[in-house]
Structure prediction request, 900 residues.
Amino acid sequence: MGERVFDVAIIGAGVSGANIARHLSSYELDVILLEGEEDISFGVSKANSGIVHGGFHHDGRYLKSRLEVRGAAMFDRLADELGFPFQRCGIIAVALHPDDFGALGQLYERGRANGAPGIEMCSRERMLELEPKLTPETVGGLYAPCGGIVEPYRFVFSLVESAIKNGLELRTNWRLESASREGASWRLCASTGSSVLASRIVNAAGLRADEVSQLFSAEDFTIKGRKGQYWLLDRLTRSKPSRVVFPVPSAISKGVLVVPTVEGTVLLGPTATELDDKDDAATTRDELEYILRSARTLIPSISETDVIATFSGTRPVLGEDFMIQRSGLVPGLVQVAGIQSPGLTASPAIGEYVTGLLAQDGLDLVPKQDWRPLLDRAPHARDLSFEELDQLIEINPAWGSIVCRCERVSEAEIVNAIRSGHHTLDGIKFYTRAQMGRCQGGFCGARILQLIMRETGLAAGEITKRGGNTTVIGGVV
Amino acid sequence: MMYGTFDVVVLGGGAAGMASALEMDRRGWRVAIIERESRLGGILLQCIHTGFGLIEFDEELSGPEFAERLSDRIPGSKITVFVGSTVIGFESMEEGKGKAAGQVVTFASAKGVTRLESRAVVLAMGCRERNRGNVRIPGTRPAGIFTAGLAQRLVNIDGIMPGREVVIIGSGDIGLVMARRMAWSGARVHAVVEILPRPSGLPRNVVQCLNDFGIPLYLSHVTTAIKGKDRVRSIEVCPVENGALAISKAFELPCDTLLLSVGLVPENELSRDAGVQLNPATGGPRVDSQMMSSKSGVFACGNVLHVHDLVDNVVEEARRTGAFVSFWLEGTRPSREIKVKAGSKVRYVCPGSLDPASNNQVSLRSLVVKDGAQLEIRAGEIVVKRIMKNHVRPSEMITFNLGTTELGALAHIDDATIEISIP
Ligand SMILES: Cc1cc2nc3c(=O)[nH]c(=O)nc-3n(C[C@H](O)[C@H](O)[C@H](O)COP(=O)(O)OP(=O)(O)OC[C@H]3O[C@@H](n4cnc5c(N)ncnc54)[C@H](O)[C@@H]3O)c2cc1C
Ligand SMILES: Cc1cc2nc3c(=O)[nH]c(=O)nc-3n(C[C@H](O)[C@H](O)[C@H](O)COP(=O)(O)OP(=O)(O)OC[C@H]3O[C@@H](n4cnc5c(N)ncnc54)[C@H](O)[C@@H]3O)c2cc1C
Prediction:
């Protein structure tokens, strides 16, 4: 028997690649998802605002705007099928000066033109009713009830799990380094020496989509990085709004927001800085201070004492719009590049759209008779009633051992994450939320290291924070 | 689900939990201790250095030895101990509303979920360490950043070395002790960096853990950035001069490991859930002269109440709390309470009120460093007492007594308030 030839190889397991993979998994196809990092969702998709946008920020001329509106509408069904944390909490944009009504009016018209459901302009009173924590300086605003929030990494994990259940092959720690023609197929080679044959390729490599395009001698473009910094506030903060709070946006960014996350914490940010070095993920004092000042103009009660972490994320920017198209130079290659904001919102529609492009390229789409769109719900100790937890402990005592006290994560959940292939501290964090709360791993870090060693047989010195050279400890005493 | 009933349930089996439970047991009450870890002892178990017990046992013990002195007495008592058991729910109802039992504590263990009803609860959950986010140090997020307590646990309990080229941010006691511990274990400790003009830890720890090892201490220096993509590569440090960052004098300290010793916060999420009022100055519950919180029947002691430097003080406070719980269970309440407040140069006073009819132990922390200081205790215009102190500093808790001699005269003055200051 000859070597297996995949119908489609997707480069990059961020929210774009994951949605494409899940969509393709509903057809009779052999698909492989290739990710360079140690775990999926370790790229742009792990650090963003997690907002399902309200369809009013962008002009309908742009592809990104059409995909945003379509993608946003697809979330309810996906969340029903896959069970990732998602909530349509609504979005408000706050006017602090009568002049702001000009810009807000434009957003409102844009939202109407884009077909954003239920969008309304609001009086001061209505705004303060929608969100009592807003500054008394509020003069009015905009309300998009269909906007929402999602936990982006859990979204990616569940999409990929669902696709794997339907036949997807996943390789992590598999960085594409070279590609060459082999008959009608492509021979894809990784840094590790392993290689894969595929007939069609999707380049969904986020910040590196330009480099991947070059490996195929396809379109020559440059992805620029635009960094955004954040504060993360403890779930106990008194300043948590019940809706996403936007200022009136500027030309280059949507401004500093106050975002209630689905899991109960609060994000402040992001900023927007053009980077020379796409890998520069450092937070800076000046921008962090700016964030706090800006966020306080919206919700004055925000306090530094609630801060539990700072981080940054980098938008892959290629001009104004997404670039999603069949390569004009290389048959069989689809480019999914420049997926900046609202990429997360648009991603379900990107999956659908890219499938359409592959069909145009001649890919035969035969729906799977036995496609199973539903994912079993994995329980979480923190969401269970005492009775439910008790029943789980009876089946598996590891449910009774609470490893992460801040986010109440049991040993059973951590072991499940490790057995599902998440072997790094960050992978376990994104998968289970352990180490994500107010102590940031101060208590549970040592326990989690022990569990990884027990489950994988790795030595302590081999465990990493997020793969590569991010070794956690220096050795033994 | 399993169920149980006790007179008192103690949340946390560290020094405070054990000492209060032993006292209540001695007085004949049915007591349960719930402890998350697999054995009793709390934070003491990872403190293998000596320096514990000089007051309590008149001996210099290591942390585990001190913990054993308490835990060895448990088997001879009637205390019920649940280890490997994490409290996941605590509800406090006013006594008498329908039931006698006012408190419901729920915990999870490998055996299942258990619900305990009791008349009283003692909060003894200890504290947690502040982390990088809490002190808002900018920069990258590489591997190699640990809180000092986590590092202490890794080295002393798990036999794991966090790294070899170490810088410690913050000069709290745990950081100082860990500087020495890391140096002993073959790491190079390049510096301890402290934002304040003075160390936050005890002077004896500065001498024994830094000076004796030639480890430089940078006072009045802010860590302005953490650098390194995968693993920590260095930190950028900037001196503070006249209250502002002297940016031009910033420099880098290379290292592969950072330990943070930037303060402790009482762990009061469970207390908060139960509606217990907290004091923002301590992070612990507000308590009256009987160590009882704003919720009737809910008491607190040890680091969950306010952060202590010495376990000996924790044990004394816990024993006292055990006795107060016992009085309360017997129905004895002070006939009145006199409010206490922190005055000039005092960060906080604990407890928040005093019983003029008995002897009260008072703890406080100074906001300033001062030689030849005087504590002034006044009620309005009247100076009730003056206490001379050779030296006061924020890092050292001050304790003293106020009894009927000082307070008796105030018992009949309505709204009497005591203010304690360092003039
Ligand atoms: C600060 C910020 C805030 C944002 N807020 C929002 C928001 O609120 N709402 C919203 O809708 N959108 C938001 N976005 C946009 C959204 O996060 C992105 O559009 C989206 O995550 C992009 O996903 P992706 O899959 O295209 O890229 P990525 O998630 O980066 O995935 C690409 C993957 O490709 C891998 N890869 C790269 N090169 C190779 C190779 N050679 N071989 C194998 N694998 C490779 C990478 O490791 C990576 O995992 C925000 C973005 C940022 C930065
Ligand atoms: C690192 C360090 C070094 C120190 N060095 C010295 C020294 O040299 N000399 C000295 O005298 N003192 C020292 N101290 C101070 C002294 O040891 C402590 O103040 C004292 O041990 C605290 O006792 P505690 O019982 O209040 O708290 P802890 O010992 O922290 O006990 C709290 C207990 O509660 C448990 N718990 C918390 N939440 C839950 C829950 N939800 N369910 C179940 N259980 C729970 C915890 O597991 C823990 O065992 C040091 C303290 C620290 C932190």
Notes: Residues 340-421 of chain B form one domain. Residues 311-330 of chain B form the longest helix (20 residues).
